[in-house]
């Protein structure tokens, strides 16, 4: 898990504010980008990449919602403001809120970076990867409903109304992005084209595909949290869960073992009655699981890709079990 995300989970559980936490909030305020967002993967308290941040500040590019960036910083600011009432933290939070609202596409989707990066085509794509869009939507809904840590911020009614409208547009986008196969609802891709909404690739090993765990589960849980859902939302949930049930990997488990050369590795082994597994990626046409190395070539078996990607990516997971999918 990225550093700031880990810290925020710890921080949110803390009931007191100390000098260390106000120092963290001060650092977050200091390195807020001109756009109102933040760069990703920073330890604001111990070891932020100041050279990278300086470059981003000069170019205006680098703000993102990837890996929990921006929403994580905003949660810290809201929490510290509730305890200190330091206006700087509220002002920075409001700037972040404007950033999240301004970056949303008219079709309801959110790109990974805003302003867009020219050196990475995937940066402008509608991004479900790593819970990016869902995290933004959940925050906006909580802001709109004046929940928990956001109530002390006294956000204006007009801004909260705008946040709720953005959430609702996001739901519409999610429903339109859901992949259909022969008229049957399936699941989602990690990223979708910002114009056509079609599934699209990201990095070389992240091919356009049907996503079997992680992102799809996050989307389903968000949809399930909607009170009085429409028939379209209900159908979306039902279709996605049915697809997951039909594509679960049974009687298999991920095993970590030590090889003869001393390195640790992972493999898929037989294990009767093991918790259901799902692949991260399923082929858009065949709907079969696949694994991919940095060469961009899909392969049928985990052991068919190199050591670095095999061990450096979450190819298989059990997260759909959160939906109480039974064996």
Could you provide a short overview of the structure?
This protein has 327 residues and is an alpha+beta fold. The protein contains ten helices and 13 strands.
Describe, in plain words, how this protein is organized in 3D.
By secondary structure, the protein is α+β, with helices and mostly antiparallel strands. Helix content is 39%, strand content 11%. It folds into 2 domains: 171 residues, Glycosyltransferase; 150 residues, Glycosyltransferase, CATH 1.50.10. The strands form 6 sheets. Strands 1-4-5 form a 3-stranded antiparallel β-sheet, with no helix packed on it. Helix 1 runs parallel beside helix 4 and helix 8 runs antiparallel to helix 9.
Q: Enumerate how many helices there are, as a single number.
A: 10
Sheet of most strands? 3 strands, antiparallel
Main-sheet strand order equals 1-4-5
Instruction: Tell me the CATH topology of the largest domain.
Output: Glycosyltransferase
CATH architecture of the largest domain: Alpha/alpha barrel
The mean pLDDT is 93
Low-confidence stretches: 9-15
Structural class: alpha+beta
Give helix % range.
25-40%
Identify the overall geometry.
globular
Radius of gyration, Cα only, in angstroms? 21 Å
CATH class of the largest domain: Mainly Alpha
Beta-strand percentage range = 5-15%
SSE ordering: HHHHHEHHEEEEEHHEEEEEEHE
